Structure formats: C-alpha cells, structure tokens
Amino acid sequence: MTFQTEWLRAALLATSLAFAATSPVLAETAPSEWKVTDFLLDNGMEVVVIPDHRAPIVTHMVWYKIGSADEPPGKSGIAHFFEHLMFKATTNHAAGEFDRAVSDIGGSNNAFTSYDYTAFHETVAPQALEQMMSFEADRMRNLILTDDVIKTERDVILEERRMRIDNNPQAVLDEEVNATLWQNQPYRIPVIGWMQEMEQLNRIDATAFYDKYYRPNNAVLIVAGDVEPDTVRALAEKTFGKVARGPDLPPRVRPVEPEQNTKRTVTLSDGRVSVPSFSTQWVVPSYHSGKEGEAEALDLLAEILGGGTRSRLYQQLVVKQGIASSAGAYFQGTMLDDTNFTVYGAPRGDARLADVEGAVDAEVVRIAKDGVTDEELEKAKDRYVRSMIFARDKQDSMANIYGSTLATGGNVQDVQQWPDRIRKVTADEVKAVAARYLVLDRSTTGYLLPQTQAGN
After folding, report:
1. Residues involved in catalysis
2. How many other β-carbons are positioned within 10 Å of the β-carbon of residue 183?
3. 249, 253, 254, 365: which has the fewest C-beta neighbours closer than 10 Å?
4. Number of other CB atoms surrounding residue 251 within 10 Å
5. How far is CA 173 from CA 139, 265, 321, 355, 446, in A?
6. With contact defined as beta carbons under 8 Å apart, do 449 and 268 qualify?
7. What are the phi and psi torsion angles at 243 (to 5°)?
8. Residue 51 backbone phi and psi in degrees, to 5
9. What distance in Å separates the CA atoms of residue 287 and residue 385, rounded to the nearest whole number?
10. What is the H or E stretch that residue 270 is in?
11. Angstrom distance (rounded) from CA 238 to CA 114
12. What residues contact 354, with CB distance under 8 A and at least 6 apart?
C-alpha cells in the first residue's frame, strides 16, 4: 500500500507512455487474440481486457477515479488513508482474508494512490480471477469501518509519513517545491497529506469518502493476461455487476492555476546530504488539458533534452564537459489537469552546482531558441518505439497504461492512437512548446544542499 511520490510517478508514467509507443508496431503483426476489448457493465463500470496467452498469469486491477487532488479542503491524505482502509474487514470477509487468499495461491497484491486515481491490483493464475473479482467487488461497498479500525490505520499512515517524507530530505524538498510551483491547483498538496490534517481524519470523513467515490460507475476494471474477453465479461457481470450503481458524480473541475510571472526558488540544507542537486520545474499542459499535439511535443522534448544517455543534457554535461554525475528531464503527461516539466542535475568531482545549473539552463535556452534537428527528432521517436517493442512482456505495465489513461479522462483509442500522434510531431512543434513553456523567468527551482553549503 503506497502513495506515488513525484519521482516515482514520473518514472512510472515515462514507462507507461513508452510502452504505449509500441502499439502500432504490434498491431501490424499481432495475432487477433491480442485485440484490446472495452465495454461497460449495466451499473456503469468500465471494463478493459488485454489478452496475452503466452504465460498462465493474469493481472487484475480496479482503478477508482479519485485521488488526492479530489480531496475536500482540510482533509488532505484521506484518499491514501482510504486505500489502506480497503484492506480491512468487510461484512463477508475478515481482515487479512483477502491477502491470505492471494498468498495461498502464490499471487501478489497491493495498491497505490496518486493525485488523480487510486488503484488496487492482483497478479494470479487465471483460474483465480473470479475469486479476485469477488473480493474486490465485496470491498467496493461492504467495508466495516469502526473507530478502532480508523485509529489503528491512522497511526499507520502517520508513521508512513514520518518514514517516507520527514526522514527523507529529498522528499521534504519535493513537497516544498510542489507547494511553490502550484499556486492554486490541488497538486500542490502532497498525496500522503499534511501531518496536521492527517491527524484529524476520522470515521465520519472516511465513511463519507467511501460512500461518495467507491462505486462501480466511478471505477475502471483492467484485466490483462491469459484470459478471453467473453470470460472476463461473464465473470465481471457475476461479481462487479451485482454492485449497485452510485449517484452520478459531478465533473472533476478543480481550481485553475493563475498565470505565473515569477521565478521562485526553494532551498533545503541538511546534514544528511552529501552531494548537492537541483531541479527546475514549469507548469505545462498534460495530455488531457493541452491543445492538440502539445503533450506529444512535450514528450519528445523531454526525450531529446534529457530522456537518457543519448539526450542533450547527458551528452553535454556528463560525457563531454564531465561536470555532472546526473542530468536529465522528464514530463508527466498522464494527468487530469496541467502538469509539470522538469530538468535536474547534480555535480561531479570538483564541479559546482552552479556550473551544472548554468549548463542545464543553457541547453534549455538553446533548444527554445534554435529548436531541434529533424535527425534528433526522428531518433527520439525511434527510441520510443524500439525501447518498448516487447511491451507485452509486461502485462502489468500494459494494465497501468490503460488504467492511468482512462482514470485521467482518456479512452482506449487514446492509447492506441498515441504512437501515430507522436510520429506526426514536427521539429517546429517541439521548438514551439520549448519556447512557450520553458521560460526560466517563470520557473520554480529547488536546491538540496549539504549543511555546509547553506546560503551558497
């Protein structure tokens, strides 16, 4: 049971989008039994089936369209808190019974919470699929929430915050940078929540949250692996289909970010830090909030600028100048609202952090002014496709691609058509998004420094 921190989410989303890049390649040669199937149950629950018969394994995921950015004011952390509560007793199963059932058959299960969704997943043998569906359908509506249960699990998440955030200088800085980057949007609030608000979460809060959001018409079921669509449909109707539809929820409209006109910095000096580092972020459109083609261009911009060992930042700072131990960029495209574009770096040897930051900034300015070459762009596109030509070797990643897309306003066609849209991006479009959005005077930079470098 986890919450996805910014760095982890970035890694997962980068992987998800790269996996999606292989879809048309596979589609041209894939057997018909690999065709993705999408349908709705009568109670409004969407179901996606991704067949893959090469191994007798199935990944079963339930995605709820509720994340930390949807939380009521003053109740930060309740989405992640409720993820924990979903593993408690129901009217039909004792606490821990679900976990033991998965363990007894050699499977695995867990859950995670992010800004825009909460997901629960199991990986088991195909013959156990109906049992997994039955357990998930049961806890969708039949949890037993008592004051004792709430108090015990609240203590757990408070300790989790102490361990994952308060004891980690990088995590503390990430929180402060987010709270500075976002001036109005709820992405500024950490997924795990603020400590003082987490301490006040109670049974009334949890019950209201459960009754509002944990309904089949606010959920997406993803089944990937050694299954047939007709079998999944029959099992889904037998289990999830028996759960009553909840009231229709209003559109997920959140506060809009104001125009940003300043450069802001956040600095944390800590005795536990041995190597200084920095990151600079900008607010940019996501796949859901951007104009046509913008997010695709931002994806390729991140790849060219800092997506790996062949990127401009790595080649210039790590290989040629030798001043950086790390340097890169990433774009978190799969978000419901606007998102962030990030560049980062850390010095090597006797190099100063200021030298690394200056060199990174220079590359950002250069690409915004001069753009990218057609050769660079084509190689970036090729890397997306080549690196994930074996996407179906990881059925859980395929399930994550579709689940995260559908939970943030997209659909199955968006995933399948994404590679074609990537291929249509031009060098001029990449230059345009760099010039429009990566303006240093409208950025937020975080510095993580050793204690001795405070104020430098």
Report:
1. 83
2. 16
3. 253
4. 6
5. 36, 11, 28, 21, 7
6. yes
7. -85, 130
8. -70, 145
9. 19
10. strand 264-270
11. 29
12. none
Torsional sign, CA 319, 322, 324, 329: negative
C-beta separation of 185 from 338 below 8 A: yes
- State pTM to two decimals: 0.92
pLDDT per residue, tens digit, the chain (456 aa), is 666 544 334 434 444 443 333 333 344 444 555 689 999 999 999 999 999 998 999 999 999 999 999 999 999 999 999 999 999 999 999 999 999 999 999 999 999 999 999 999 999 999 999 999 999 999 999 999 999 999 999 999 999 999 999 999 999 999 999 999 999 999 999 999 999 999 999 999 999 999 999 999 999 999 999 999 999 999 999 999 999 999 999 999 999 999 999 999 999 999 999 999 999 999 999 999 999 999 999 999 999 999 989 999 999 999 999 999 999 999 999 999 999 999 999 999 999 999 999 999 999 999 999 999 999 999 999 887 665 555 567 888 889 999 999 999 999 999 888 888 999 999 999 999 999 999 999 999 999 999 975 444
Cα 342 to Cα 374: distance, rounded to the nearest angstrom:
23
Return all residues near 370 (Cβ < 8 A) that are at least 6 apart.
Answer: 431
